[in-house]
Structure formats: C-alpha cells, structure tokens
Design a protein that fits this description.
Elements: E1 10-13, H1 24-34, E2 38-41, H2 48-65, E3 69-72, H3 75-81, E4 85-88, H4 95-102, E5 107-112, H5 115-124, E6 128-131, H6 148-157, E7 162-164, E8 183-186, H7 188-191, H8 196-211
Parallel strand pairs: 1-2, 1-8, 2-3, 3-4, 4-5, 5-6, 6-7, 7-8
Length: 212
Amino acid sequence: MKQDSSSLLLYAITERAWLKGKTVTEAVEEAIQGGATFIQLREKNLSYEEFLKTAIDVKAVTDKYNIPFIINDNVDIAVKVGADGAHIGQSDEEIKTAREKLGADKIIGLSAGTVEEAVKAEQSGADYIGVGAVFNTSTKLDANSVSLETLKEICNTVNIPVVAIGGISKDNALQLAGTGIEGICAVSAIFAQDDIKAAAAELLKLAKQIIE
C-alpha cells in the first residue's frame, strides 16, 4: 500500500508510556475510530519478541479499518509482519537498504530537519518526509527545533508529501496553516489523552483546516 496525501492527514504515533492501562492495540483502535488516518508503531524499549507481537496485534486493527500501518526504525519487524512500510531516521538504515528489504510497493518515510536532508531523502527514494520538531516536545528529547519558515521552505522544495511532527497539539496546530504540509503527526496529543477517540477527532478537524 502506497500512501496518498489524504492518508497522511492525521498521522498517529504510538507511545505506550501514556496509555494508563490500555494496550497499544486498544489505543490505536480508539485513535482510528476518532479519525487517525495513518498509524506508526514506535517501540524503543521492547524485546524483539514483544515488539513483534505488538506489531502483529496492531496490524490486525489497521487492516480492519484499512489504515496504513508502518513501523518506526525496525525494518526487519516491518517485513516480518507485512506492514505497509517503515519510518527511518537520518541515523537509521539507509533508504536503499530499507527499500531492498521492504520492496518497491511499500512506504518509506524519513525524518528531516533541514532542506538539505529533505532533498536527500527525496532523491534517495523516500515516499514522504517527517519534519520536526516544529514545537517543543517531551516525546523526543534529542529533536532539534525546526522553524515554520524552514518547514515551509522544505514543502516548497520537495515534490513528495511532508508531515509536521513535534509538540503538535490542539492549541498550536493551526499555526501550521499555510506551510504546505499534507498532515500533522501527533503522539501525546492523542495517546496521552483520557479520551483518545475524542482527541483524534478534534485533531482531525484541525488538520483539515490546516491543509485547506
């Protein structure tokens, strides 16, 4: 499954630390029911076996709703479970290697913080670029900040979809209007909320306003 621009509108990235007793699978289903259009499974501290089991369980949910599902960083897990693709960082596997493992029909996203990194990602064959952190974030403490001017410049420079990530919430999302992004990525703004479904629904409305 190759993503189209509409599938990137509300891009939800999991974080089990905030789930207050819910499983990742339960939280993902609530996010999709609320309006999440794309799911990335991010697990930094699980064993391979636990990561694999979680990926299988989450994929069953995304398949049920026909939502694109990708794995953060771990291309091998993505291949093993038949995910729709993987998201890799500048320091993770090179796109060429990831593409060889995943196949031509899978989605590969790449993180970028500068115009140069974004251009390189596009030239290397990335399907979309995640740019951030656009706002301060507690999710990724090593993330460098990216100005809205740089975000806009990246969108104007590359020909593949760009999504914004980093500290995006219902309170600041509309600041991204006019930048040229195709969607917003949310972590705590969805998964740290008491009502995940309602939080996703509210963010989806904002995302639609941003890309109008």
